[in-house]
Amino acid sequence: MKDSVKNSVATIESLDQEGRGIAHVEGKVIFIEGALIGEKVTYSSFHKKPSYEIAKTTQVLKASPYRTQPKCPHFGICGGCAMQHLDFSAQVAAKQRVLEDSLWHIAKVKPESMLPPIYGPAWGYRHRARLRARYVPAKGRVLVGFNEKRSSFVALLERCEVLTPHISSLIVPLQQLVTQLSIRDLMPQIEVAVGDNISALVFRILEPLNANDEGLLREFADQHGVQIWLQTKGPETATPFHPLDVPELTYSLPEFGLTYPFTPTEFTQVNPQINQVLVRRAMSLLAPQPGERIADLFCGLGNFTLPIARSGAQVLGLEGSASLVSRAKDNAERNGLAQQVEFRTADLFEMTPEKMAALGRFDKMLIDPPRDGAMEAIKSLPDAGVTGSPSRIVYVSCKPGTLARDAGLLVQTKGYRLTACGVINMFPHTAHVESIAVFDKC
Fold it and tell me: Is 251 helix (H, G, I), strand (E, B) or coil?
């Protein structure tokens, strides 16, 4: 639907999980992009339904004291960020409110205490990204960046303030590079992975490169100090192209003396500074002890598993991806922890009480699921009153709604208490809310 020509007035009451202002006008809920709590704005609706509308701010009549000037000149056009107009500390507070509201409205659960929020650098924090690439014949050029807001078009970017400065500086050179390639209209994305000692760019190619293309890619990699990978189909087809004699891609958890090799298409956290603090917080809350047996569900390549093992506990890591399990085993071996950990491939979305029981008794458990949450795994747990059920569960979440749903299951059907919860600002300037929660036996 096209934007309405009528500009209405609203006072913003709260923010939703997309960072939009929420107002009520004539009995209808209005979600307004670019508006902040307490502001009086005029808005123009571009999507109307009987019970709600989605709109954009056309004028701020009364500004919030927390409104700030966005650092990025592309903010409002590029869809990568949603909250640059809100003061950084206020962003964290807004996410905390989203978390608390989700827990209460979805599950009628309140944490006994709120943990201090975890936050770190506001800019240049993003070490992982999937950039779109699109050839625009009318302009005779390729655009590289993120999609425009509410659009499949690629935003015209010159830099990105949330990417690391080195990767941000490559946006224009990448546009120039891909424009020169014979398959410029058959290279839809470039995946970015920044490691401790090298940065990798994965070019998704739909047709083979010719000799000139290969020469251009080699020259680009050498000039800008990156390693280029090529991906022909799914993520598993990504292979290093040039240069080959470079350090392996790794990230580290220095506090635990751990180094994790990974490939650029494998999942790692986008914000390594926050990840280090998150792992420290998770270990403090879980408090693993020598002799305990602990489960790490959705363990990935061992981000939490290996720090748990450093405590002397025995750890079972479960993960649905066989390739990640293989990587996790290699990481345990590399870090001298192979005797402390076991990794198994398991589809945790198909977990049953019988399968869970077959895994044996666990003293404690850590759960770090994707956005879909861990409902089937939680349903499969023994009740808290049953001998051998985990005394404590630490749950790391990347979506408040599924955390709330799963918290309801743990509290209302499994007999646990939500003893603590807090936000993790893994993605500053976006509406993305990560959190960590602690559940204890009643």
Answer: strand
Residues 281 and 357 in one domain: yes
CB 66 within 8 A of CB 36: yes
Residue 18's pLDDT band (boundaries 50, 70, 90)? confident
Together in a domain, 213 and 291: no
Burial environment of residue 420 by CB neighbours within 10 A (0 to 12, 13 to 18, 19 or more): middle
Instruction: Based on the residue annotation, tell me whether 442 is a catalytic residue of this protein.
Output: no
**What is the per-residue pLDDT for 6?**
62
**How, if at all, do strands 28-33 and 52-62 pair?**
parallel
CATH code for the domain of 310: 3.40.50.150
All residues at 6 or more sequence positions from 334 whose CB lies less than 8 Å from its CB, including other chains: 259, 261
Domain count along the chain: 3
Complete edge-to-edge strand list for the sheet that includes strand 40-48? 8-11, 40-48, 52-62, 28-33, 21-25, 14-15
Instruction: State how beta strands 364-367 and 293-297 pair.
Output: parallel
The verdict on residue 250 lying in a domain is no
Q: Are residues 107 and 219 in the same domain?
A: no
Whole-number percent of the chain with pLDDT over 90: 93
Dihedral sign, CA of 308, 310, 316, 320?
Answer: positive
The confidence band for 203, taking pLDDT boundaries of 50, 70 and 90, is very high
Using pLDDT thresholds of 50, 70 and 90, give the confidence band for residue 187. very high
Q: Please give the structure tokens belonging to residue 16.
A: 């939703």
Question: What does 31-69 look like in DSSP terms, one character per residue?
Answer: EEET--TT-EEEEEEEEE-SSEEEEEEEEEEE--TTB--
Residue 352 domain boundaries = 97-120+271-441
Q: What is the pLDDT of residues 316-357, one digit of tens each?
A: 999 999 999 999 999 999 999 999 999 999 999 999 999 999
In a domain, residue 86? The reply is no
- The token pair that represents 395 in the structure block: 């749950």
* 321 and 184 housed in the same domain: no
Same domain for 146 and 115? no
- Both tokens of 61, joined, read 């009549």
Tell me, yes or no, whether 202 and 289 share the same domain: no
User: Among residues 72, 78, 299, 398, which one is catalytic?
Assistant: 398
Residues 278-296: what's their mean pLDDT? 98
User: Three-state SS string across 118-180, please?
Assistant: ECCCCCCCECEEEEEEEEECCCCEEEEECEECCCCCECCCCCCCCECHHHHCCHHHHHHHHHH
